[in-house]
Amino acid sequence: MTSADLSVQIGQLSLRNPVMPASGTFSEDLAEFIPLNELGALVTKSITLDVREGNPGPRLAETAAGLLNAIGIPSKGVAQFIAETLPFYRNFTAPLVPSISGDTAAEFARLAVLLSSEPVVRGLEVNISCPNLEDDGKSFAMDPVQTYRVLRQVRQATRLPVWAKLSPNVQSIAEVALAAQEAGADAVVVANTLLGMAIDVETRRPKLGNVTGGLSGPAVKPIILRMVHQVAKVVRIPVIGVGGIRSAEDVLEYLMAGATAVQVGTYNFVHPQGMVEVIAGLQKYLQRHGYASVRELIGSVIT
Amino acid sequence: MRQALGVVRRNEWVNGRYKHLTVYAPGLAQVSQAGQFFHLLCGADVTSVLLRRPMSIYQMDPGRDELHFLYHVKGEGTRLLAEKQVGHTLDLVGPLGHGFTLAAPWRHVLVVARGVGMATLAPLIASARQRDVAVDVILSARTAADVLGEREFQAIGARVFTVTDATGSSQPEAVRMRVETLLGQGHTDAVYTCGSARLTRMLGEVANRWGLPGQVALEEHMACGIGMCQGCTRVFRREGSAVHLRVCREGPVFPLAEVMDA
What we know:
The complex is a heterodimer of chains A (303) and B (262).
Chain A: E1 8-10, E2 13-15, E3 19-21, E4 42-43, E5 60-63, E6 66-69, H1 78-89, E7 96-97, E8 99-100, H2 105-116, E9 124-127, H3 144-157, E10 162-165, H4 173-182, E11 187-190, E12 194-197, E13 199-200, E14 205-206, E15 212-216, H5 221-234, E16 239-242, H6 248-257, E17 261-264, H7 266-270, H8 274-288
Helix pairs in contact in A: 2-3, 3-4, 4-5, 5-6, 6-8
Chain B: E1 2-13, E2 18-24, E3 37-41, E4 53-56, E5 59-61, E6 66-72, H1 76-82, E7 89-96, E8 108-114, H2 117-130, E9 134-141, H3 150-155, E10 159-164, H4 172-184, E11 190-194, H5 197-210, E12 214-217, E13 233-238, E14 241-246, E15 253-255
């Protein structure tokens, strides 16, 4: 049986398949487990302008079918990232999409400028949605106006494809997605983690050093899938779905809901070879159902 | 390091709290070092236990292609692991992290183990004895019944001292006196510990004063175990400054002198 075509297009960027790691759940270390070139793209942990230590521990708490994290974007700073990390990725053909994080729109734009002059960088994921930085979990992506402002400045600072990583902790994610599109984003990534909390009843202390954190894992999938569906209905740009994926079936749900590609996050922690298995499962499904291309499934849910 | 499927050969209680798990896993014992760990998938129930559990190696048996783990049945993960029957498969990732170093010139070492920390130190003690290095072991536990490994270590020629909470002999100050007495005999080249923050602090201070190298195997909650998530990061003193290092990747064994927040 001939192989189905797994390739998808995110703006100007062609991906060999729609599966890539979610920011913060992937690093060079995974190359010891899987051939990175088999992935659709490589999305790094968010990088900041300056060095950041991240949050005090504990940074992790396992919950029912989920994982709470409050890592807090530890970062070596963009200069060291360019000098030490980027050379590693020159050995790979899968497109590298660094995630960037800043405290101000100007910082995001500065990061975009600095990374745009590096040929190995093929796109930028703009992380305006980290719930763990400060201000009780607030982020740019909670407000369409702030989202527009950051994305606009990044758009003006680079010719690279720009993906906006949105927050699920909002009233209307579709409205924020439209703001990102209006600002010139090439894709929206739906979505970052859900704000959550857990308490150790023996000590009466929060299980996370940061008190609150972001929930990921199987527990969030139905919620994010609903958001992908809502966003895909209103935007013209591609949607990248991310939340709780641990099988080819999960990927298919996201594609049918309207995602053009997906990111796998927490599952990478449990199964380092998981993404490669998910891609193989996707191929099998397409062959079994006689689809020539995975693109036929995008937005194909029957409602 | 890799992901593999092992087969459970034994999974038996050694006392009321600990179980000894033996896994047939071809090729892994040969590449494992004392102090390294495996990341175990305890069960398939993601509702209660989504993540793997890091487990240090208790014994490597290359001849039988076996890995051994000794674990305290404490939370949901280890409860699921305790239910594994002979013949069940066990999904493991590893060996992971950096293990203990035993420098060639060292002829005499001191090991201080608290509770199930002795499991992490057991393969170090075994390899030291294989190289005919003299080993003093202080085993600390809640009660005499909880002390594990006394006969096992004596059988390979280690000198074993037990201290317990029940007799008050396990208080850090009491253990410090014991350690000082042993170091005072003048033979010790290095010290090792695992299992207690208080004993780690104490041993770090003593080793520093005696000018002895020391190593500690740290425990930390982990998500990925392979360096990606940065969830197990702790602060260490390295080259004069405080640095964040991943317990899974840069550790779990660290020089005692680098530990700041034990």
